[in-house]
Amino acid sequence: CRQLSGEAFYACIDSVLYVLVVQFRFDLPSMKQYCTGLPHELAGRCFAMTASRLVETDYDNTDKAIQWCKGAGFQDARDACFQELVKESDFIFHSGSQTLNTFCGKLPENWRQKCIAKNRK
Predict the structure, then answer these.
(1) What's the maximum distance between 2 C-alpha atoms anywhere in the chain?
(2) What is the pLDDT at residue 71?
(3) Smallest Cα–Cα separation from 69: which of 47, 41, 91?
(4) How far, CA to CA in Å, does 16 sit from each of 2, 12, 99, 108?
(5) How many other CB atoms sit within 10 Å of the CB of residue 22?
(6) What is the pLDDT, as a whole number, of residue 121?
(7) What contacts 24+ positions apart, CB below 8 Å, involve 107-110?
(8) How many CA atoms are closer than 13 Å to the CA of 34, on its beta-carbon side?
């Protein structure tokens, strides 16, 4: 990834982080240690991609992903984590589905409103 720049660099990082969750066998304490050890500007992406992978792997991980984001080491990481979940919500869940509505309803208030607004059809 270091040989890339701009959006290509971040797309590469996101891809690596997405796979890394599986390589860590969804061991969240180890993943948290890894994420918090990254440079500040990448730690948020690490938390975000982990949360996204959790939910994309199994809808039953929704609560776990939300708790994961709440437990991210610092506010910027928490924001990046919830932003990723909201951004991907209409990809992870079927648009207009009860599952999507339930998911949005479980998010903290400010993210709940963003999720509902994004998915209002």
Answers:
(1) 43
(2) 96
(3) 47
(4) 12, 6, 28, 28
(5) 10
(6) 62
(7) 107/66, 107/82, 108/70, 108/82
(8) 17
